[in-house]
C-alpha cells in the first residue's frame, strides 16, 4: 500500500463526518399520492442527489450481488487518491500476471506493460475492464486484497451498512453483496465528491490497444441528461445498473439490481427517471450567512440585527413539483422582544416553510452579527418604551 493511502482515508472520514453534520435536508413527501412505476427488477432505489432523500424504492435493503457496480467503489478510491495527489492521472502502473489473467469483461491489458492511471480508469468505467480494476487495485494498495480492505473501510465511512466487498471487479465471490440503497449512496458520493473525474462515466466509447469498445450504459445515448454511471452483469447478479441524470437543475441517482435483461434494466431506469423528473423538484433555499431579514434589537448599540439561516451548510429540500411551485418562507420573530446583547449565531427567530396550507419545514434563524448594549441613556429609553409605555401591546419583532 502506498504510504499516503491511509492518510487520505482518514481525511476523507473527517470530511464525510463534517458533511453529515453540516448538510441538513428535509423532505415533504409524506402526503404524496403519486405511485412509482411498476418495476420488475428484484430491487431498486431512486434518490435525489442534492438532499440524499429516497424518492422511490423496492427491496432497497435486500442484499444482492452487485456484479460490476462494484467498480463504482474501485473508481471512488482511485478518484480519492488522485484528488489527494497520492496518484497522478499520468502515473504509470505495471500490469501483473493476475491482472492480465482476469476473466470476464476486459480492456485487454498485456502482462508487464505500463499503463497510465487515466487509461486504466477509462478502461474501468467505459469498458468495465476486470483487468483494469485489478491493475488499479494493485497499483494503489500493493495487492487486490489490501485494496478490498480499503473498499470496505470506505463503505463503512459512507454509511453503506449492508455492503461487503470481496474483490475489486464484481466477479462472484462468497459474501460479496450490496443493496440498492447502499449503491445509491455510493453513486451519489462519487458524483458529489469528484465531479471533474466523474465525467469519465459519461464517455460512450474508449479505444485501447487498437480495440474500440462502447459503454454498455445505453442511457448515455438514449436519455437526455444521463451522464453515468455503471452497468453490471453476472449470472448470479442478473442485469444491474447504477445511473445518474440531470434535468431541471436536479440530479437523480437510480439503481436497479437483478433485472432480467440489458434492455429491461434500461427501460426500468428510464421509467424511474421519468417518474422522478416529472413529479419532483429539489431546491437549495438558504445559504449560511445569507441575510434574510432584520429584527429590531432593544437597548442595543445597533437598532437592528441581520438574520439568516442557522445551519452549517445550505438548506436543501425535496418536494413534489406542485409543492415546489407553492413554496413560501416566513420569518417568525421571537415570542419576547429581542434585547441586547446579541451574539453572532444566537437563535433569534424561526423560518417557517409552507407549501399551500401545509407546513414542510421549521428552521432556526440566527443573528449574523454581534449587537452590543447601547449607551445607558439609550438602554433606559428603550426600557421605558418597552416596559412602561405600552405594557399590554404585543411586542412584534418583525
UniProtKB/TrEMBL annotation:
It holds the Pfam family Peptidase_S11. Residues 280-373 form the Peptidase S11 D-Ala-D-Ala carboxypeptidase A C-terminal domain. Substrate binds at residue 230. Pathway: Cell wall biogenesis; peptidoglycan biosynthesis. GO terms for molecular function: serine-type D-Ala-D-Ala carboxypeptidase activity. Residues 1-27 form the signal peptide. One of its GO terms (biological process) is cell wall organization. The active site is at 68 (acyl-ester intermediate), 71 (proton acceptor), 128. The keyword Cell wall biogenesis/degradation applies. PANTHER family: D-ALANYL-D-ALANINE CARBOXYPEPTIDASE, TRAFFICKING PROTEIN PARTICLE COMPLEX SUBUNIT 12. Removes C-terminal D-alanyl residues from sugar-peptide cell wall precursors. Belongs to the peptidase S11 family. This is serine-type D-Ala-D-Ala carboxypeptidase. It comes from Candidatus Amphirhobacter heronislandensis. The lineage of its organism: Bacteria, Pseudomonadati, Pseudomonadota, Gammaproteobacteria, Candidatus Tethybacterales.
